[in-house]
User: Fold these one by one.
Assistant:
Number 1:
Amino acid sequence: MSLNAPLITPYVGKKAPALGPCAIIASTLPDLQMLRGLLGLPKDKYRQLNMSRLFRGQKESAPCLVGPVTGAPYAVIILETLIAWGVQQVVFVGWCGSIALNVKTGDMILPDAAFIDEGTSSHYQASQTAFVKPSNKFLLKLEEQLTGNGLDYHKGSVWTTDAVFQETPRQVKYYQNKGAIGVEMEISALFTVAAFHKIDLAAILTVSDELGDYNWRPGFKDAVFKQRCNSVCRAACDFFGR
C-alpha cells in the first residue's frame, strides 16, 4: 500500500453511467437550464450527482451536461467523478466579477491562466502561490469557436478565491497588479485537476458584476448580461457540435 495513494476515489460501480468523452459543466442554475434547452435534453431526465444534475447526451458523441457547481472543492468532486466515468474533454461555463476597469458587465472572459487563492489545488501538487493554465490546444479551439460565433471577448487571467465576501480592495489591487481581469471561485482548481489527470479543459465566463474601482456594482439583472449568457451557452454547445 502506498502511503501517498488516495483512500477514497470516485465510485465506478455497475450503475455508473458510461459517459462519452465530452462534458459541459455549468456553474449556475440559469446557465444549466439554458444549456439543457439548447442541447435539446428533457428537463425531467437526469441523474442526481451529489448536489448537481447530470444530463446525458442523446448521442454518444454529444456532451453530457452537469450543474450547478459552485466553489473549488465541489467543482473538483464533480470533475473527478466525470473523469472516472469516461469524460476527457470539458468546457466550464460560469460567471465572474470584473477587476479590470475596461471589462464591463456582460463582457466575456476567456481565461488563459488562473491565480490560485483557493485551498483545493495544493492537494494536487500545485503551489499555492502559482498560477495554472488550461489545455492550450483546447483554449485555442475554444477561441476559434468564439470568433466563429462573432463574439467579442477578453482573453486573460483570473483570480480564484474561496471567499466571495472577503474580496477586499487590498486583494483586488494585488491581483490587478498581477494582470488578472476577473475573479471567480472554480477555475484554478479545475485547471489544476485537469492537468493532474491529463484531460482537456477550458472555460468561458460572463461578467456579472464589477469591482475594478474598489466598489461593487452588481449586474445580474442587466439585459446585456442575460443576453451574453445566452451567447456563451450557445458557443459552448456549438463547440461540441450540438
Number 2:
Amino acid sequence: MTRLTMILSFFILGCHYSNNDGAALHLTHSESKDILKTADTLSDPNSNSYLTNLPLRQVANLILNDSIRPSDNKVTFDCMDSIYSSNIETRNFYFPVFLKILDKADGALAEAVGGYIKTYVEKYPKELIEKTNQLTDEQFQSLASYTGDELYYTYDTEEGDNKWKNNVLKKCSDCDSIQLRRLRQFIKLAIAARKKDAKQ
C-alpha cells in the first residue's frame, strides 16, 4: 500500500463529515473502498494509467530489468508503438523492450503483439532482419509465428499470403542476398503459422 493510499485510508475511515444541518455524515465501507480504488491508479498495476506519470524510457528500463511486468496498459502499448518511430535510435532502443514484452506477453497482450511485429516487418524489413541476427532461433521463430497469427486475421488466403510476401520483399529492395534469404525464411515461417491457424 502506498503512502498516499495509507493517508487516504486513515482520513476516510477515521473522519466524519458534516452537512449544512450540522449532522455527521459517515462514508459507508463501499464508498470508502470506491474512493481508495481511484486514489492511486498510477501505482496500481491493474490500472490502464499505471506508471503513466513516469518518462516512457524509465518504464521501458523497468520492463527490461524485470522490475515490472508488461501488461495490456497504456505504457506497455506506448513502448510497443515506439518500434514504429521515424527515429532509428528510438526504434533501436525500444526493440529489445518489445522482445521482452513479447517474451512476457499473455492474455490480451499476447493477442496484440502479432500486429506490432507484422507492421514492423512491413515498414522496416531490412532493419528487422539485421536485428534478428542477434536473436536465438527460438526468438526468430516466435516473431514469425506471431506475425503468422496476425496474417490469419488479415488475409487468410494463399492470394493474401502472396500479396503480403511481395509487398515485404519489395520494401527490402536494398537488401543483399543474405538478408533476402533470411527475410524469405521469416516470411515462410509466418505463412506456415498462418496456415496452421487456418487448419485449427
